[in-house]
Design brief:
Blueprint: E1 16-18, H1 20-26, E2 29-34, H2 45-59, E3 64-69, H3 74-85, E4 89-95, H4 103-110, E5 114-118, H5 120-140, E6 145-147, H6 155-175, E7 181-186, H7 190-202, E8 207-212, H8 217-234, E9 247-249, H9 262-275, H10 284-296, E10 305-310, H11 314-317, H12 321-324
Parallel strand pairs: 2-10, 3-4, 3-6, 4-5, 7-8, 7-10, 8-9
Antiparallel strand pairs: 1-2
Helix pairs in contact: 2-3, 2-6, 3-4, 6-7, 6-8, 7-8, 9-10
Length: 325
């Protein structure tokens, strides 16, 4: 396996800890991998990907990074902070917020990221056109920009979660047992793709289960396969993946990306009050809601060991103060 260039940005490996109350509640051993502890302001799953993505940008002589997302995007915030650490100019194309300047957008502004705010309809209809305009403007200013898609979900970014799989394999070897499932939130496919490739490389026997956080399942499955195969090719790993390899669980997205329902809020509060684990309402509370749903259905039997990946997102929690007051 040949790894692409990497810049160390994250605190790795992240710890794996038991979730004792959840385990007692369902009679299944549940653990959490704390990828919310990968760093400070740039924390979360995105920073694993950005270690490789931003190294690629620097390797190509770029001095600006352009990415996109919602106004409260965890990925955009992580990209902005990490780019500033490396002396790169971050430019964020974001959907206009419906609330005041809080959460991730506040941090984007604080580190001095350039921000282009667009109406949601325009964003979805013509993101590529908006991207070209931003690139042209940066070019006129003497900048060489590098494009990072939503969630840094691209083959080179997925390599970061191949590394996560290696950490899981090392943990299993140290404690002398194997996980039966790895559960996490999936929205743009990069984390799922990296875990699929990493599980194959490092011999994980666990089922890799993504809880859909609000995207059309078939599109998400197709994108995950595309990224996984690109990642495998980049690493010179011979296995190729197909749609049936991608497990996506629907029904816990509260109606779509960024939407919130009573179950999601209830799940967030339960984990905070019973496990001291702080989630966010866009990704990790939905992923945890899906995990609980699988446990309630009896998807896992007594004695099984399940690993939940906490992918971060705490700053976005402060956008939802009205729901939690």
């Amino acid at each position: 396996m040949r790894l692409p260039r990497k810049i160390s940005l994250a605190n790795l490996p992240t710890p794996i800890q038991p979730l004792n109350r959840l385990s007692e509640r369902f009679g299944v051993e549940v653990f959490v991998k704390r990828d919310d502890m990968t760093g400070g302001a740039e924390t979360g799953n995105k920073i694993r990907k950005l270690e490789f993505v931003l190294a690629d940008a620097l390797g190509k002589g770029c001095d600006a990074v352009v990415t996109c997302g919602g106004a409260d995007s965890n990925h955009a915030r992580a990209t902005a902070v990490a780019a500033k650490r490396l002396g790169l100019l971050p430019h964020l194309i974001l959907r206009k917020p419906s609330k005041r300047l809080v959460g991730n957008l506040l941090l984007d502004r604080l580190v001095g990221a350039e921000v282009t705010l667009v109406e949601p309809d325009e964003y979805y209809a013509d993101l590529e056109g908006i991207r070209r305009k931003v690139f042209a403007d940066l070019g006129r200013r003497g900048r060489k920009p590098y494009w990072v898609p939503t969630g840094a979900s691209m083959p080179v970014g997925a390599v970061g979660y191949v590394g996560c799989a290696s950490e899981i394999a090392l943990f299993e070897a140290r404690v002398g047992f194997k996980f039966d499932a790895v559960v996490f939130g999936t929205g743009s496919g990069g984390t799922a793709a990296g875990l699929l490739v990493g599980a194959a490389i490092y011999g994980l026997s666990a089922r890799v289960i993504g809880i859909n956080t609000g995207e059309p399942a078939e599109e998400l499955r197709s994108e995950t396969v595309r990224i996984a195969n690109g990642c495998a090719e980049l690493l010179e790993f011979e296995k190729r993946f197909k749609a049936s390899d991608v497990v996506i669980v629907d029904g816990f997205d509260a109606g779509g990306y960024g939407e919130v329902d009573e179950r999601t809020v209830k799940t967030l509060k339960w984990f905070a009050e019973n496990e001291g684990l702080l989630l966010d309402l866009v990704y990790t509370a939905k992923a945890a809601s899906g995990l609980v749903g699988l446990l309630e259905r009896g998807e896992f039997k007594s004695g099984d060991r399940v690993l939940f990946i906490h992918t971060g997102g705490l700053p976005s929690l402060f956008t939802h103060y009205d729901l939690l007051a």
